[in-house]
Amino acid sequence: MAVTGASWLAASAPAPVYPAVGADGLAAVEALSLHPAVSLQASPRHASLLLVCGRIREADRPALRRLHDQLPHPRATLWWRTEPVPGFPAASCVGDDRADAVRAVWRRLATGALGSEADLLPDEPPAPWRGKGDHGQGGEGMTGGKPYGRPMAMTDEDCRDGLALDAYTARLGPFLPILPPGLRLELTIQGDAIQSARVPSPPYPQAGSDDPLRCIARLLPLLGLAGLAERFRRAAQGRAPDLGAPDLGALGRALRRSGALYAIPPGLGGFAGEDLRARLRRWWAQAEGADLRAPPGEGCLADLLPGLEWSEAMLVANSFEPEILMRLCRAGPGDGDGS
Amino acid sequence: MSAAAGLALLFGVMAVGAWLAAALDRAALALAAGRRPAAAMLVAPWRQGAIHLLRQRIRTERPDAMNGLLAPACYLLLAAAGMSVVPFAPGLVVADLDAGIVLWGACEALTVVVVFLHGWSANAPLPLIGGYRYVAIGLPAMLLSMFVLIAAALPAQSLSVSAIVESQASVWNAVRQPPGLVLFLMLGLSLTLRGPFDYADAADLAGGTSAEASGPAQAAWQVARLAMLVSVSAMTAAVFLGGYHGPWLPGPAWMLLKMIVVLAVLAAATHMFARLPPARMLTLLWTLLLPLSFLVLALVGAEVLLWS
Amino acid sequence: MELKDLAFLALAAAAAWTGWRVFRTDSMVRASFALMLSFIAVGAIMLLLAAPYIGIATVFMMAVEMMVMALFMVMFMMNPAGLNPMRMVHQNGLAAAAGAGTFAALTAAILLSDLPADPVDPARPVIHDLGIELLGKSMLIFETAGITLLATMVGAVILSSRSGRYGPADDGALPPPLTPGGRPAGGLPEDGP
Q1: Contact B128 C30 (CB under 8 A)
Q2: What is the pLDDT of residues B101-118, one digit of tens each?
Q3: What is the mean predicted confidence (pLDDT) over A147-162?
Q4: Interface membership of B77 toward C (CB under 8 Å)
Q5: Residue A298: exposed, middle, or buried by beta-carbon count in 10 A (0-12, 13-18, 19+)?
Q6: Distance (Å) from the C-alpha of residue B142 to the closest C-alpha of chain C?
Q7: Which of C49, C56, C71 is the best mutation test for B, with the most CBs of B within 10 A?
């Protein structure tokens, strides 16, 4: 009885969805985020539905499988604007851009009418333990070999203030919501500062997502302003070529009052003569109707990130329009997997 | 009052307060997003809790399981311990310690430890970054609160929270040291991982210390955060807003009313202000806010010396 | 046996056990926080000894200190979680012998000395008396100790930071030249002493 009560409560809640955005899928996902019956989650562990929206590169399919297995049970997968990737369980809902379809799947999943999807990959470490001796307890010197193929962290030279800390290399995947969709980054972090960066694959092209209000709305959640970002997205949604501009006065006041411009450090992410603050101001001016264009410039995202701290790096990665970011990533060390 | 009754009252206030705080948080988010708050927001926390309880609890590879269990439990206990020194009426306090604000300070320090352990226990990069980033900001923020609490203890000539409330019979501490109230509210945001001080569970770390927590573990952590919010608002109401003093209504009613006001202010501040990157926030804390708290302490000390 | 005596025995056992766990666990972060728990038990014992301010302040300070120590473990040690099976102790035989010897000596000192046994009057304002003592007769000691500690910390950070007086410290700080564009006054490190 308690179980059915809880599942009834859960079914009436907004559907917790984790979006895996592919090519040209960002606009649909941003429109979905405004719907009250759906709640987009930041981490796959907090979601029950994996929404794949847009065509996925062949090279990103293994990442998508790993992502699917990271969602806790009960889980289901939805496919929008793309064919289901082979190997996934028989798709329960392949519709396009309909929030009520998402809600229907969530209701069935929460009440138990829809069974949870099984794991796609075996639940084992990717590399077995390797160490000398019967139990791997031996090794050269003090250490006992490389457990599960991961070498232990050693201190490394630092480019910022001379404090040599342990270096850690993280690979941030193609479907991380804090990065533009499709962008892979390989960052070597010491403490919180990034020592070196590499861009193995560029972000997906996103048609219809370069509206300046949308660009600002992508930056604001990284500053903790989720509500204001939703307001900007709603304003961008409601804007049509023949209608008048949305209430930009109130939006501008809210933006200034939140201190977002002050929060961004001056001189951060300088590219083509513009730092992050200047880009934010330019986007706001474009939203108000000024005919400004992004200044031309060549560069590489991998050169902009070293020396920055994590949150600053995330701000910089999200501070470019989609086409400019693709140009920045294409010029980089592109021994990536192509498209 | 008897210990059992006191503890029952404490947990009752914390439970109802946590529910109200969750609803106020959703309402503040709705207002920031340009929507109107709906009555359904009172039910929404229960719905979200049901989702968490029905979800599988994920176990990452080689986690620190003991600390993963202890972190939310200790967070909740620290919230309870902090609130146990707050009087709801003359004599209505669970633990009337002579060094009440020192106990509150110890709870703040242990909160930083608990949040770090929550990030550490998952054995994953994003939670760990959230954990140690929070330590860098949480420790100086704690120092701020200690100075303003000492400034609140000066007119009362005692470290006990009951005596501090008694000393506000004529004038509230919020009037004696207005910047002190603002600084203490900032500390409240830091202790509960909210808004401009949310360096631990931030969106730019995909959930930070909670990124790998799912199911009942996640529910426990969120409940503990809300309980700490209730505890912080109780302390703010007692130390800065005159506690149970007020006309017409009985003491506990005034206390609850003031707590609700502080909850609403903290919920609004969560969604209104931008979060500075940690280096910038550190500079702000050490070069502007800490000297400000020293100044507040000196001014209150001068006022007590000259006019008492 | 009163409740206070039972509480003292339980807290003392907790302090000793968590102190032993510091050295038995492989995880350095757990070791730091086990040490913190040991100190918390000692702080609670001080509450029993009618020193509430000192007891709670001990907990407060130790929480902050052990947090910073755990952070340093994560920053600098190659194996902070003890997940790699390596020997996490050095010279443990000598250390165990030294510890046992110190324990025996301290126990002998405690059992053979004549400790006072007069209980504190519950109505006594101990915090007030502590304050008067700290800022009265003992002010010189505490204030000079505080300033000395602060100066030491500031000096250590300055000495270890990269920005030297005339340039990056690991380039070898050089005094400026006497004429613009000339040789650095006082010579270069390569010239020898």
Answers
A1: no
A2: 999 999 999 999 999 999
A3: 75
A4: no
A5: exposed
A6: 10
A7: C56
Question: Residue A244: its pLDDT value, please?
Answer: 52
| Contact of A287 with A212, CB cutoff 8 Å | yes
8 Å CB contact of B275 and A223: yes
CA distances (Å), origin C16, targets A66, B143, C42, C100, C102: 46, 31, 10, 13, 14
Q: Sheet with A193-201: list strands edge to edge.
A: A167-172, A184-190, A193-201
Nearest Cβ partner for A224 among B44, B203, B280: B203
Q: Which residues of A touch B212 (CB under 8 A)?
A: 43, 45
Percent of chain B's residues with pLDDT above 90: 86
* Nearest CB to C78; choose among A135, A152, A191: A152
Looking at beta carbons, which residues of chain A come within 8 Å of B49? 9
Give CA–CA dist A221/A263, Å, rounded.
13
Q: Which chain B residues contact residue C27 at CB under 8 A?
A: 64
B265-288 burial by CB neighbour count: b if 16+ within 10 A, else e? bbbbbbbbbbbbbbbbbeeebeee
Assign 3-state DSSP to chain A and report helix, strand, coil percentages, each to 5: 35, 15, 50
pLDDT of residue A166: 85
Q: pLDDT tens digits for chain B (308 residues)? A: 677 888 898 999 999 999 999 999 999 999 999 889 989 999 999 999 999 999 999 999 889 999 999 999 999 999 999 999 999 999 888 888 899 999 999 999 999 999 999 999 999 999 999 999 999 999 999 999 999 999 999 999 999 999 999 999 999 999 999 999 999 999 999 999 998 999 999 999 999 999 999 999 999 999 999 999 999 999 999 999 999 998 989 989 999 999 999 999 999 999 999 999 999 999 999 999 999 999 999 999 999 999 87
Using the predicted structure, report yes or no on whether residue C29 has a pLDDT greater than 80. Answer: yes
Helix (H) or strand (E) holding A49: strand A49-53
Task: List, in sequence order, the alpha helices (H) in chain A.
Answer: 2-11, 26-33, 61-70, 99-111, 212-219, 226-237, 248-258, 260-263, 276-287, 301-304, 310-317, 322-330
Sign of the dihedral defined by the CA atoms of residues B195, B198, B199, B200, in that order: negative
What is the pTM (predicted TM-score) of this model? 0.93
Give me the residue from A72, A254, A264 closest to B215, CB to CB.
A72
Strands A38-40 and A76-80: unpaired
3-state secondary structure of A167: strand
Give CA–CA dist B151/B147, Å, rounded: 6
* B105 touches C: beta carbon within 8 Å: yes
Query: Which chain B residues are closer than 8 Å to A220 by Cβ?
Result: 274
Of all residues in chain C, the one with the smallest CA distance to A136 is C85
Long-range contacts of C182-190 (CB under 8 A, 24+ apart): none
Distance, CA of B149 to CA of C53 (rounded, Å): 15
Best probe of the B interface among A7, A17, A38, A46, by most B CBs < 10 A, is: A46
Contact status of C81 with chain B (Cβ, < 8 Å):
yes
CB contact under 8 A, C63 and B109: yes
pLDDT at C193: 59
Chain B hits for C53, CB-CB cut-off 8 Å, are: 98-99, 102, 159
Q: Which residue matches tokens 């020396």?
A: A307
C17 touches chain B (CB under 8 A): no
Query: Helix, strand, coil: what percent of chain C each, to 5?
Result: 65, 0, 35
- Say how many CB pairs under 8 Å bridge B and C: 72
pLDDT tens digits, B219-275 = 999 999 999 999 999 999 999 999 999 898 998 999 999 999 999 999 999 999 999
Q: List the single best residue of C84, C160, C170 to mutate versus A (max A Cβ within 10 A).
A: C84
